[in-house]
From TrEMBL:
It comes from the Bacteria. Residues 44-334 form the Dihydroorotate dehydrogenase catalytic domain. FMN binds at residues 61-65, 85, 138, 171, 216, 244, 267, 296, 317-318. It is an enzyme of class 1 (oxidoreductase). This is Dihydroorotate dehydrogenase (quinone). InterPro entries: Aldolase_TIM, DHO_dehydrogenase, Dihydroorotate_DH_1_2, Dihydroorotate_DH_2, Dihydroorotate_DH_cat, Dihydroorotate_DH_CS. It comes from Pseudomonas borbori. Belongs to the dihydroorotate dehydrogenase family. Type 2 subfamily. Its cofactor is FMN. It is a peripheral membrane protein. Its EC number is 1.3.5.2. Keywords: Cell membrane, Flavoprotein, FMN, Membrane, Oxidoreductase, Pyrimidine biosynthesis.
Length: 342
């Protein structure tokens, strides 16, 4: 069925087809129809960060930026759903066109630039959703907030989403907001993490619940830089790391139509880079912090590779665009078939 839907969706511009997908998934979710359209994945619950995930395959951030289709995506079989990136104030993002499909490479290039309706809209959507499972809310900064003041935007978003999120993801790795990725390194990272941790403590007292904090990182880091990030996350008492966001590299898409568009590249070409980051993180972290792996899962077996590399959970974006909901089931099956750890 998705093959047919894909043929129709791929005739539209990527952004129109994106909007239509959100509308359809959202409408199906409100009517409770999505579960009828696709076979549910096997039950494979995972306990992590004090949360119970229905299965280890989640929706990655950026597809449902405003939380408009939470119930719909959950009904398609995702074991958890991450919405956002959301910023304190609404913003339009970069000029269009800013989203490109590269089907020969099972890839996407985007320079959306955190287009979103702002944190208050997102919270209204979360409150309207019926979904009871694990909901991640991914937070970022407005494009016109100077990077030296980025921490203010993250804290503002954290304050607002805290009571409504199962976990919060701090996105310091989008390539489309100038300066954002500099927050992944050195003192900028340490200061940001310290501010987040202190606020998390205050909010834990205020709300009587501790909401885990995950940091989402880029794939474009050396092994030394990755190890440094891992150490900083442990030192700061963060709860998880999400690896990875899109890449600035263009390996695998050179010479293809849209291959040299500016922005972040996702899908099959980022797979190995992303899995390598997971391996480096896993070696350094040695289980002290869980890893959520994302990047280039286009077949079930790639999800298995991410878990074998040291991740506890995976997320999917581009693979879902190319393969539809069947990929969720395939990924769950591949993970279920792995030898048990420990
Ligand atoms: C069009 C598009 C928009 C994205 N927007 C976000 C975002 O707002 N926040 C974020 O953390 N990641 C965002 N991502 C990155 C994905 O969540 C994911 O980390 C990346 O695409 C790699 O996974 P994939 O190969 O399965 O797509 C976006 C990706 C795409 C393709």
């Amino acid at each position: 069925m998705y093959t047919l839907a894909r043929q129709l969706l791929f005739k539209l511009s990527p952004e129109t087809s994106h909007e239509l997908t959100i509308d359809l998934v959202g409408a199906g979710g409100r009517l409770g129809l999505n579960g009828l359209l696709c076979k549910a994945p096997a039950s494979l619950p995972v306990k992590l960060m004090g949360l119970e995930f229905a299965n280890p395959v989640g929706l990655a951030a950026g597809l449902d930026k405003n939380g408009d289709a939470i119930d719909g995506f959950a009904q398609l079989g995702f074991g958890f759903v991450e919405i956002g990136t959301v910023t304190p104030r609404p913003q339009p993002g970069n000029p269009k066109p800013r989203l490109f499909r590269l089907p020969e490479a099972e890839a996407i290039i985007n320079r959306m630039g955190f287009n979103n309706l702002g944190v208050d809209h997102l919270l209204a959507r979360v409150q309207a959703a019926k979904y009871q499972g694990v909901l991640g809310i991914n937070i970022g900064k407005n494009f016109d907030t100077p990077v030296e003041r980025a921490v203010d935007d993250y804290l503002l978003c954290l304050d607002k989403v805290y009571a409504h999120a199962s976990y919060v993801t701090v996105n310091v790795s989008s390539p489309n907001t100038p300066g954002l990725r500099s927050l992944q390194f050195g003192d900028s990272l340490k200061q940001l993490l310290e501010a987040l941790r202190l606020r998390q403590e205050d909010l834990t007292r205020e709300h009587g619940k501790r909401v885990p904090l995950a940091i989402k990182i880029a794939p474009d880091m050396s092994d030394e830089e990755t190890v440094e990030v891992a150490r900083a996350l442990v030192e700061a008492g963060m709860d998880a790391v999400i690896a990875t966001n899109t890449t600035l590299g263009r390996e695998g898409v050179q010479g293809l139509e849209f291959g040299d568009e500016a922005g972040g590249l996702s899908g099959a070409p980022v797979r190995d880079k992303s899995t390598h980051i997971v391996e480096v993180l896993a070696a350094e972290l040695a289980g002290r912090l869980p890893i959520i792996a994302v990047g280039g899962i286009t077949e079930g077996k790639h999800a298995g590779e991410k878990i074998a590399a040291g991740a506890s959970l995976v997320q999917i974006y581009s693979g879902f665009i190319y393969r539809g909901p069947a990929l969720i089931r395939e990924a769950v099956d591949a993970i279920a078939g792995l030898p048990r750890k420990g």
